[in-house]
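DATA SHEET
Item: assembly model
Revision: 1
Owner: S.N.
Input lines:
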Amino acid sequence: MISSRTFGFFLMTPAVIIIVMLFLLPVVLTGVFAFTNMSTSTGISGGAWQISPATLQELRDRYAMPELAKRLAEPEYVIDELGLAALSKAGMGADIVADLRQRHLGETFATRRDAERAIRDISHRPSTAELKQISEQFNHSIAGARFESKAALFAGLASIGMRLTEAEQAAVAGATYTGWNWTGENFRRMVSIPSTSLSLLNTIIYVACTLTIFNIGFAMVLAITTFYMPERAAGFFRGLWLLPRISPPVLYVLLWKWLAWDTGFLSVFLAPFGIAQRNWLLDSSVNAWIFVVLINGFVGASMGMLIFSSALQAIPKLLLYASEVDGANRRQQIWHIILPQLRWPILFVTCYQTLSLLTSFDLILLSTNGGPGSATEVWALATYHTALNNYAGNLEYGYGAAMALVLVAIGIVLSPVYLRLFNYRVLVSRPLIEQ
Amino acid sequence: MTPNSRVWPVVLLLSIISAPLLLMYIYLFVDTLTITTPGSLIPHAFTLKNWHFLWATLPGRPNIWRVALNTLIFASASSAIVLSVSSTAGYVLSRLNVPFRGFFLAGVMVLHAFPSVTLIVAIFLVLQMVGLYNSLAGVILVKAALDMPLGIWIMKGFYDTVPWEIEMAGIQDGASRFTVWRRLVLPQVRPALLALGLFAFLSGWSEYILPQVLSPGNQVQVLSVYLAGLIADDNNFDMALFKSVGVFYVIPVAMLFLFFQKHLMNIYGGGTKG
């Protein structure tokens, strides 16, 4: 019979593998990717080494090697055996090839014109079209060439007779590389650009308003009012306020869009009062904010409502009756009996919702998409727009990962708070059966 | 409940606050089956034309039944993975003295609280690297993994309520730990399995961000991405069509809630994300 340890090991393995691969690994990789400049243009796998106009620009500007850039840019024509072989393979007559070899082998020309002028003298008297065909075979220009490795790049440079110093080699390799690099630039950029502080401010407004007004405030109103209601009415309201939570987000936001769009409910309803029809969701940043808080708050209120309600059910009925006998009115009852009972649940909901509001962006994405302008662009949504989806189409994975890393770090700091909120000691008490 | 104040002012107040919510849901169903002249709020005729997407594929969109099938596969597969893995891991954490048990428990709890959506950038890149981008398998695995800490946590909680005596008796009679788990303990937590399975299914059915980012292609599209794509298309703005697709999308959710309300409230009441 296998021991309970081995048995436990087997039962645990799938969960551990899945959680490590798709949960812990991404946490680590967010940190790794944050220190790269990965983007759509660099790709995510390794890159190649390509000599392009951008390369030459970079050699001039970043490495201050204009001389080297000029040499790389220059086309070069060398009459060599390789070119001759290619020429005869391309179907050029053997006599022309022999003639070329005899007269010009080993000669080097800086431009195509020079090369063609020299070749023109062969006995065959080639036409202009033929000349072009011939000179093409001896083109040793490296501009536009693409190499799969650094070694291939240097070999390619050597084959056209470019001898580089070590510093030049490093510069060429750096400038021609198309893949991603390690960099700390993302964080420098994050603290320097203004959009960072804007989305930080937006996030604070969003979390603070939604949390205080709805997730705690309105949730308490719901819990306390339904507590005093007859059972049927209470059940109806609790069920109604649970709808936003169980509706899929895409559908839920669609309902709000219907409420707010140009010819939607709000516009039609307010038209008789002389208020112009408009898209209430996006017409001004204040309105956009009101809707963002409402949309998120209506979902968030239900969690507080459920937790507070069940805490209220735990109040002994006798206590309430006794207080009434003693002449307490409804307000005193709420203040002295009900609110003290809610202290822990409020703490729990605050911790939980802070974290989930900080990082959730699906409802904002679906409703305002950060607009109008960037008025409602919160940090998590800005991360999504940077790394995963934007109009420009250049997705900056590295910078997005750096932005996500900030949220991951907040999550890592805040989520262990739960170990305190739940009674951790009891959870880890030793099992009763051992074999 | 107690007579020191009247009930009706509170009911009235709450009714006024709740009115927009109620209206939105009522109009969701009304608008799919009726025609309303723009500028009016009262529908004037009955119609089925908003439902034409069921038999005529919309231009530039995948077939709705194909999309519904993808959604079904996505939600049930991730639910099945969550269920099978959490029911074993939850048992281990509840009952067996494995090495690092305290560490695992703490880890599961921290991960449960951890905002997993922040990992989307890294997961996106990983799936691209391993070639699972734009495939149902990839997004199913990711969804299951992200729901798993909650699943393990819930199953552990339910296993904790099963009396030790049942297992003691089984062990005394010479059954192995596996038999005890399979034959004696698992039947005890059947309501939990049902609740967690349904919860994971609904969570998959409603999921938007993960499929949108990880599998947006037409072949593997799910209903949430399909509907969001329709709504985002500014050239064909048809609110009644959106609502009809929305109702089609939400029918299974509504059905499951109607039938299994009690089971599901076990989990929703326990504090999940959102």
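QC remark: Chain B has two domains: 8-47, 53-268.
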